[in-house]
Structure formats: C-alpha cells, structure tokens
Amino acid sequence: IYNSSLINKKSERDDIRAIAVPANEIADELGSARVANMVLLGTFIEATNLIKPESVEKALRAVLSERHHNLIPLNMQALERGRAYQ
Fold first, then answer.
1. pTM, whole model, 2 decimals?
2. Architecture of domain 2-85 in CATH?
3. 78, 26 in Cβ contact below 8 A?
4. Cα(73)–Cα(53) distance, rounded to whole angstroms?
5. What is the pLDDT of residues 29-80, one digit of tens each?
C-alpha cells in the first residue's frame, strides 16, 4: 500500500499486490493533509483485516491527550475513506 500522491511509479513485480492510494488528495478533500496516514491505514485495514477500526479509535483515545480528542472524528473519517477506496 503506497501513497500514489507521492509515488507515481507502479510496481513491476507480479508476485505482490501493490495498492496505489491517492492519500494526499483524499486527505485534502477532508480538509487536512495531516490525515493522509490514516487514509493509508484504512486501506491497510480493509486489505488485511488485521486490525479492527474500533481498535484504532480506542488507541487514538488512549494515546492522544484529552485536548486533541477533537481530532479523532476527522481521523476516523479519513480511516473510513481509506477503507472505502479499494
């Protein structure tokens, strides 16, 4: 999974699955380039089923200070956009 906003070269290998996600553009549509990483994480979650989206929100609440909890909805929205991108 890679940010096709920054990398425009496609993989030449046929033994892997490369997923190009325009994470910067999606993040910009949401109003903040800072959530591009969450877009990519959402794509990873959807592609692998290794992490539950609820676990991400729980982790954000645990690691972010209370004053930054207002950023959680935007981050979760970015995560969902990444999940839906596939």
1. 0.93
2. 3-Layer(aba) Sandwich (3.40)
3. yes
4. 12
5. 999 999 999 999 999 999 999 999 999 999 999 999 999 999 999 999 999 9
Domain boundaries, the chain: 2-85
Output the six-digit token pair for 39.
């877009």
Distance (Å) of CA 60 to CA 4, 6, 46, 75:
25, 26, 19, 9
Within 13 Å of residue 45, how many CA atoms lie on the same side as its CB? 22
According to DSSP, residue 5 is labeled: T
Tell which residue, 79, 44, 39, 33, has the closest CA to residue 58: 79
- DSSP strand E in 1-86: where? 2-3, 20-21
